[in-house]
Specification:
about 170 residues; alpha+beta; Peptide Deformylase; two-stranded antiparallel ribbon; 7 strands; binds nickel (II) ion
Amino acid sequence: MALLPIIIAPDQRLKVKTKLVEVVDDGLRTFMDDMLETMYAANGIGLAAPQVGDVRSIIVVDVARAQKEPQPMQIINPEIVWTSDTKHAHEEGCLSLPKNYIEVIRPEIIHLKYLDRLGHERELEASGILATCIQHEMDHLQGILFVDYVSIVKRSMIFRKLKKAKKQAME
Ligand code: NI
């Protein structure tokens, strides 16, 4: 397994719309294992393929709390087929926007269709933090970042800070 470099915003590669996976094979499974390893190493609870420069429709998630059994999920071609009318506000972070936390309001419960790591069709009902996390990661597959939900002024401020931090890191 290998750690993949995580792309930090602002970056055009985070704006891509991903393509559906057509074949689930060993190469893909290795890539998804690398995604999970990268996510755990960065202390994240979710990661989407564009964050590591890949344009396929893949997310990985594990919302199990520390000290509990890990619950890794590898989700291919996710599609939300139902959302609850009730909404849920949750403070979100993102590995591509380190140290930024913003409250985002999303549907509380979702029904999801996807392919698992064997390429089998699966369905899932998710609520609470799992629903939030899956929706956040699925936004990445459409080139949407959680800062796209705040005002352009606040977003520009966050991007300016991130650019500055990136520049400093390269010096
Ligand atoms: Ni994110």
